[in-house]
Structure to design on (73 residues):
């Protein structure tokens, strides 16, 4: 089975991959070119996580407003 692309990963999967990259880079024995590649991957994963969190926040805010509206009626 082919590995999922970053955009297809769940929030949790993206976060795990991001943590793995951070640990690898913290050790410091990664060649510079590889470190740059890993950093770029980490930035894409972080952006993806941020977008998913914002989307979830918007959905929750919308639901709360709908519930508040129905309670007030």
């Amino acid at each position: 089975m082919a590995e999922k692309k970053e955009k297809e990963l769940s929030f949790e999967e993206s976060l795990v991959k991001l943590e793995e990259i951070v640990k690898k880079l913290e050790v410091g024995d990664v060649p510079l070119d590889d470190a740059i590649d890993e950093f770029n991957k980490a930035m894409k994963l972080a952006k993806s996580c941020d977008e998913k969190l914002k989307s979830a926040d918007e959905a929750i805010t919308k639901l709360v407003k709908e519930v508040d509206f129905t309670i007030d009626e």
User: Anything to note?
Assistant: The chain has one domain: 10-72.
